[in-house]
Amino acid sequence: MQIRSRLYVFLLLVPVFFSCSAQKYIPFPYAFEKSIEADSAAVVTAHPLATRVGISILRRGGNAVDAAIAVHFALAVVYPQAGNIGGGGFLIYRDSAGRTAALDFREKAPAAATETMYQDSAGNVLPEKSRFGVFACGIPGSVDGMWEAHKKYGSLPWADLLAPAILLADKGYQITEKEAQQLSEEKVNFIRYTRMVPVFVKMHAWETGDWLIQKDLATTLRRIASRGRDGFYEGPTASLIEYEMKKQNGLITLEDLKNYNSVWRTPVEFDWRGLHIISMPPPSSGGILLQQMLGMLGDADLKGMGFHSPAAVHLMVEAERRAYADRAMHMGDADFWDVPLDTLVSPHYLARRMADFNPDQATASTNVEAGVIKTSEETTHYSIVDAHGNAVSVTTTLNDSYGSRVVVSGAGFLLNNEMDDFSAKPGAPNLYGAIGGKANAVAPRKRPLSSMTPTIVTRDGRLALVVGTPGGTTIPTSVYQVILNVFEFDLPLDSAVHSKRFHHQWLPDKIQVEEGVFPEAVTLKLEEIGHVVAPRDPIGRVEAILCEPNGKLRAVADTRGDDSAGGY
Ligand code: GLY
Hints:
Layout: H1 3-13, H2 22-25, E1 35-38, E2 42-45, H3 48-59, H4 64-78, E3 88-94, E4 100-105, H5 127-131, H6 142-153, H7 158-171, E5 173-174, H8 177-185, H9 187-193, E6 211-212, H10 215-227, H11 230-233, H12 235-248, H13 254-259, E7 263-265, E8 268-272, E9 275-279, H14 286-296, H15 302-305, H16 310-330, H17 341-344, H18 347-353, E10 379-385, E11 391-397, E12 455-459, E13 462-468, H19 474-487, H20 493-498, E14 502-503, E15 511-514, H21 520-528, E16 533-536, E17 543-547, E18 553-557, E19 564-567
Parallel strand pairs: 15-16
Antiparallel strand pairs: 1-18, 2-10, 2-19, 3-4, 3-11, 4-7, 5-6, 8-9, 9-12, 10-11, 12-13, 13-17, 14-15, 17-18
Helix pairs in contact: 1-7, 3-4, 4-6, 4-7, 7-10, 14-16, 14-19
Glycine binds at residues 375-376, 379, 397, 399, 421, 450-452, 472.
């Protein structure tokens, strides 16, 4: 059957909750399902509409990868802060037979990028240049990543997987309170960095329930639906990106777009206390950090110490501190930098890293070598398990909220500002007082170091947990804490995800905590032994699916956002 006629059949047959009268089929305000139990399949994403899209694909017989692709494109429409076609990310896959794969569709630096492109002639860092506008954009990887995933694992026709996103863009959907607030806050930036006023800008402030209709994005998605990868990296979409770059002095060329390639990599896989953990290798630091932090716990009895007890928090934080110090010194795109992966995770090395651990005293970060790199916190994650037991864990991002704030004129989508994840000036503190290493210096076609940690956990050869979160450098520590909460502290998944989190990344030398995470006595004890405990805004938005002992799936969406779980 031709793609076009298949699409037509699909449009006729699927429940038409995305049609013109969407309001009738998608009651607004949306129900945010924070925790559900499912018999066969589950989807958890940052937005209830994207979750619905994933479920509808699974119900039609699509597999977990089909659902992931449909969710990815739907999020690009309904969650413009981080869902994207102008960004990139990472996918971890495990099929029901236990075969695993890791797909890197991280953005790449344009061919014309240089090590000093975010410095002035005197060598001062120019932070605005790597954060806003076209100069901050890496070559997007999402469409190529979804195309590669579909080529390898997809079972439903490609165009069918884009159909829900096209309808949502074309006919529109109602925005949530959080989205309304954030779109309104970004108005100035959208006007400043985009040549033609995009649909994200309204004369008056956005309100909850306003309709967002994205006709240009629908047209772009139609090109991708009919031409696949080439509908983005060649032809009209590529020309519109190139035109945007030329008009605003950006670096991405038609050649850069044509040459973009996502890469299947060998996942980071390791055993830990009866679990088998599968996560992302470089250019993400996530998998290595997770293995390091868990490994540095040695044989400590965390449960015996107590959940959020001073002893347990202190040990976990000291492991975090040391792992993040390694991140800055040793981690970068392994295609460009020799990441000493085997050494970093060897039991001998990890034991040596913890040799100076003192259970009664915080280690000063000045006594721990290396430097740290800042990453932004606006990203998104989705977890999917299909009825066959195949699992997908994807974290994807534009970097900042709404990325570079550049909407490609005429094409309707936001471009990332992923170049900010590079070290703007190796060896010198950046705007945030963070120090970047040579390993993550800018270079043509290189990928910036990430913290994204899409993860799948198995036990006794069976799927146990699919998990991930946004949150920049806090991503690996959030995944680490959720794994410990479930498997060491024996918390139900709801509590494991919803309980407050803490984070240490070596520098700045403080435990960043969500307000109210610890009882006062615990905070006082941590301070007494030398920690600085600093409250901050919420950490991460975890989406997790747990295979329960009774064979059911528990899907939990984080209460920190509009996230929603679904299943059947
Ligand atoms: N841009 C956030 C990250 O890749 O970690």
